[in-house]
Amino acid sequence: MAHRAHNFSAGPAVLPVPVLEEIQRDLLSLPEVAASILEISHRGKPFLRILKQAEADLRALLSIPEDYAVLFLQGGSRLQFSMVPMNLLGEQFPSATYIVTGSWGKYAASEARKEATVEVGWDGQATNFDRLPQSHQLQINPAAGYVHFTSNETIQGVQFAAEPITGNTPLVCDASSDFLSRPIPINKYGLIYACAQKNAGPAGVTVVIIRRDLLERSRNSLPGYLNYKNHVDANSLMNTPPTFAIYALGLVARWLKNEIGGLENMLEQNRMQAQLLYDVLDESVGFYTGHAQPNCRSLMNVTFNLPDDSLTAAFLKEAEKHNLNSLKGHRSVGGIRASIYNAMPTTGVEQLASFMVDFRNKNS
């Protein structure tokens, strides 16, 4: 196998090697098709089988009930920041509540304000988004059309372990960076959206899971592509879909089912791998400082700082010599960000933890 460094990029991110190998084998010619996935019609039977199987595998992995539609769209989360309020708000529901726990939640609220009234149910900016709200801190308007939250903030490294309690108000989630990393109680949600390039596949496809009764809120006056109902009616084929990305997502879903054994097993692996890094942080007080408070640490993005910028630069340089790549933190947090998504092998996390200990011992 070709040399591969351990890729800790926040996204596009590491993909399972068996999936990459299957893509490599089939890229020139899909079995029984005699053409590449990059060449076949999105309306032909071969791709329709791929689309149907990808949806079936997602439904099986997440136990998605039939009263929820599954869509494969484009535009990433940024398009969903606009589509959600455009479709779910209007005269009957003129406002929404946003729980702002990091940069992506902040962006989502900002875009929603262009479409409707946004009430902030909690905002963690005062502490640079290093924590999550406790239940009693949430201020949710019961008349809101929905409550929006980001399940995992990629930049700050905070993650909800359980869903916010919103009563009868539909819960909307940007699950982009922890989608398929753990089971989700779908019936607690009105809508979930996730761009694929963290855990679910390459960049280019966004999964939307929406409770069908909420489709009645989508107004006919909306631009065609921005109307969820149109995409449901067209089975995600209103326009040419991102065929390759959907094909790859389907392979990832099958890998999770057949090789990992489902999302419960995936969650246990993710917990174990994250703990390897958090143990190093906890035993290195004064040298490594984790950004997220311990009770809301992400299993996907481990964020921490070193004592000064020169040590951070040295850490990154030395890490690359050990084939530990893409560890630079986002500019708003600084320091280091290790993104350990589903496909990150345990050996990669173990090597990073060992490197962190060695670097600390040599420089503290």
How is this fold's topology laid out?
Elements: E1 6-7, H1 17-26, H2 45-62, E2 68-73, H3 76-88, E3 95-100, H4 103-112, E4 117-123, E5 147-150, E6 152-153, E7 158-159, E8 171-174, E9 191-195, E10 206-211, H5 228-233, H6 243-260, H7 263-282, E11 289-290, E12 301-305, H8 309-321, E13 324-325, E14 336-339, H9 346-363
Parallel strand pairs: 1-13, 3-4, 3-5, 5-8, 8-9
Antiparallel strand pairs: 2-10, 6-7, 9-10, 11-12, 12-14
Structure characteristics:
about 375 residues; alpha/beta; Aspartate Aminotransferase, domain 1; 2 domains; 3-stranded antiparallel β-sheet; 9 helices; about 35% helix; about 15% strand
General description of the model:
There is one protein chain. The protein is α/β, with parallel strands linked by helices. Helix content is 35%, strand content 16%. The strands form 4 sheets. The protein has a 7-stranded mixed β-sheet with strand order 2-10-9-8-5-3-4, covered by helices on one side. Strands 11-12-14 form a 3-stranded antiparallel β-sheet, with helices on one face. It has a two-stranded parallel sheet with strand order 1-13. Helix 3 packs across helix 4 (103-112) and helix 7 packs parallel to helix 9. It starts with 5 loop residues before the first strand and ends with a helix.
